[in-house]
Amino acid sequence: MVDNKEASIGQARKRLAQLKLPNATLVQSNLDYFIRRFDLGVALHACGVATDLVLDKCRATRASFVLCPCCYGNLALDMPVSYPRSRLFYQRGITPSDHSLLARLADHVTATGRSAMAAVDLDRAAVALEDGYRVTLTKLKPDSCSPKHDLLIGMPIV
User: What pTM was computed for the model?
Assistant: First the structure.
């Protein structure tokens, strides 16, 4: 687990001990500075660009991923990641401004917001598919666990 917050690392250490998971490694670091090899990237309620940064780190090392995005409206045009992410969206004529509008709409817990959220996550899934991953878009259960409970699950195709 990589997290830049000491409290999060402490909480994870306690949970790993409770679950008797000796094969997990905890690292307090900013994701930008993390360069070790890993097999699985997990991001729970990763705000804004954090989901894409974890996705890119997983793609760079061919690690599997389980991502639960959050705070879509924080996907601004001046981020270290360019949007849209996928060739699929570019080929369909979706511009960075269009994507930014989708991201802002995705933060509203309405039918329109959920559709926008699905579109942003479809773009994320498509970039992983284009990079040789098998990807599933699904939801955390039960639906009431969180207003933003979409999941992207990916495994590199060998």
Answer: 0.88
